Amino acid sequence: GAVVSQHPSRVICKSGTSVKIECRSLDFQATTMFWYRQFPKKSLMLMATSNEGSKATYEQGVEKDKFLINHASLTLSTLTVTSAHPEDSSFYICSASDPGLATDTQYFGPGTRLTVL
Amino acid sequence: EDKVVQSPLSLVVHEGDTVTLNCSYEVTNFRSLLWYKQEKKAPTFLFMLTSSGIEKKSGRLSSILDKKELFSILNITATQTGDSAIYLCAFCGGSNYKLTFGKGTLLTVNP
Hints:
The structure holds 2 protein chains of 2 kinds.
Chain A: E1 4-7, E2 10-13, E3 19-25, E4 32-38, E5 44-51, E6 57-58, E7 67-73, E8 76-81, E9 90-97, E10 106-108, E11 112-116
Parallel strand pairs in A: 2-11
Antiparallel strand pairs in A: 1-3, 3-8, 4-5, 4-9, 5-6, 7-8, 9-10, 9-11
Chain B: E1 3-7, E2 10-14, E3 19-26, E4 30-38, E5 44-49, E6 56-58, E7 61-66, E8 71-76, E9 85-93, E10 98-101, E11 105-110
Parallel strand pairs in B: 2-11
Antiparallel strand pairs in B: 1-3, 3-8, 4-5, 4-9, 6-7, 7-8, 9-10, 9-11
């Protein structure tokens, strides 16, 4: 149980294009999903908290117009990196909590490696 | 400001050794402390600790929380090369259940 998938696993795009990353909870309903960013040899940095049916809550310093988050259903949240630039290249990871198990435990997707040329 | 400090930042041992990883925290609204293992991809869940002094165990891994001294340890006995990974400690606090991660401990187990 508590499986989270992400798609795509790897994406390479040109500067100026937009990239959408999907995060799905496969065997549970996730009212809350989280989006993280991780640079090489660094820890996970929370970007935003995505709540089903409402606006995402962004962490300080994260541009909400740059990183668009949509949580349209209880099993799907999307992160769109708009007008991507090379400095947006990173490892993006989503996680979800299963209220039916233990609310504090987050289960992570396999991550998406974004490279912006 | 809430923070999580892990030590050591990196550790190299030989197979069969026992290791202890440390995590200390300063938080204003503590709910729980979690340990994750991260290999090449995203972190996988190991333990969630909410109560002091109660050891959680899974195979060769165990963890305990001390809420008075504000720290947790993760023990790995009889280490194997497959234990090589980054071990992340995170606390969960606040009403939105967000996690704040430490920088991690890079464990390398040599044959």
